[in-house]
Design a protein that fits this description.
Elements: H1 5-8, H2 11-23, H3 26-33, H4 37-51, E1 56-59, E2 62-65, H5 67-90, E3 100-106, H6 108-125, E4 129-135, H7 140-146, E5 151-155, E6 164-179, E7 188-189, H8 191-194, E8 199-202, H9 213-220, E9 227-231, H10 234-242, E10 247-251, E11 262-267, E12 275-283, H11 290-306
Parallel strand pairs: 3-4, 3-5, 7-11, 8-9, 8-10
Antiparallel strand pairs: 1-2, 5-12, 6-10, 6-11, 6-12
Helix pairs in contact: 2-3, 2-4, 2-5, 3-4, 6-11
């Protein structure tokens, strides 16, 4: 008779295996599980004995899963994610009494407009919820996978892991920001008119790492372009705009009212789409998580108000 694994294994060991597989480091796994590192090592011994395999091999970078561990992860992780989602649905959700620490990543264009109002709104509706808002980086999707981030807000991604869900929050309209006395004085301008000036651009991982989107569009139209300044920090872009004739390709999410020395110029073109979505990214295991659903709804409301 074959071994009845489900009825003989301690299911807590599977949770430990899952975190070890994600972190590939016993110390980091212990921190996530709120236990000591020796306790994780002891449970790893139990897992190895139960499955008759090393499961993880020590390497300079940490732990490397064996082929048996890879096979095991492929089979149990979807089931554990479904179980977590089902149990989360059973938990009553009340923001006013919720006590929890979470981290959310905002892309730069979201950070400059939403971070302050969002935090103030959260303080009112969920006073005991501790929220850390961080910049969207090249590791954001990985951090969502590992559970270090609950969610991230940015533009749509061409490539992402299949277990990372993407939900559209709002559609944004492209426009440009320039200083008040910029040589282009009209309320709208063509890409050809903008091509006479240098471009200031935000560096957004997964969206404009190699070349700014505005530069790509000009290249497609066979127009000359020069990227005069790039930064991951919106305030650096604002400072450069104040002191130069550069233009900043942005969207109607940019807080023009907060910077009276800057003004908006709409883009007059039929050659490319000016509307694009701002999306929320989160792990599929949190697809039915009440907190994730509530935060998505709250952020969506704040964004809709911001672009009115």
């Amino acid at each position: 008779m074959s071994k009845d694994i489900f009825n003989t294994i301690d299911l807590n060991l599977l949770r430990i295996f899952l975190v070890l597989f994600q972190e590939k480091n016993t110390r980091k796994a212990a921190e996530r599980l709120y236990v000591t590192q020796p306790a994780v090592s002891q449970n790893l011994k139990k897992l190895r004995h139960f499955f008759n395999d090393e499961l993880f091999i020590k390497v300079p970078e940490g732990l490397q899963p064996t082929s048996k561990a890879e096979e095991l992860a492929a089979k149990i992780i979807p089931a554990l994610n479904d179980l977590q989602s089902s149990l989360n649905e059973l938990e009553a959700f009340e923001p006013l009494t919720l006590k929890k620490k979470i981290r959310i990543a905002f892309a730069p264009q979201v950070m400059i407009r939403l971070s302050g109002t969002f935090i103030l709104e959260l303080r009112e509706k969920a006073p005991f919820l501790e929220v850390e808002v961080v910049n969207w980086t090249s590791s954001t999707i990985t951090d969502i996978e590992s559970g270090q981030l609950l969610m991230g807000i940015s533009y749509g991604l061409d490539v992402k892991p299949k277990h990372i869900r993407e939900q559209k929050l709002v559609d944004l309209t492209g426009c440009c920001a320039v200083r008040k006395d910029h040589p282009i004085q009209s309320k709208s301008a063509t890409p050809n008119e903008f091509s006479k000036y240098e471009l200031a651009s935000l560096f957004i991982p997964g969206w404009s790492e190699d070349l700014p989107v505005a530069a790509k569009k000009m290249k497609e139209l066979s127009l000359p372009y020069k990227v005069g300044f790039r930064s991951a920090y919106p305030m650096a872009i604002v400072d450069v705009l104040h002191k130069s004739n550069m233009f900043f390709a942005t969207s109607n999410l940019f807080p023009f009212s907060s910077y009276p020395s800057l003004r908006r110029i709409d883009i007059d073109t039929q050659d490319f789409e000016l509307t694009y979505s701002l999306n929320s990214f989160f792990h599929q295991r949190n697809g039915n998580d009440p907190l994730t659903l509530w935060l998505n709804s709250l952020i969506k409301e704040e964004l809709e108000l911001a672009i009115q």
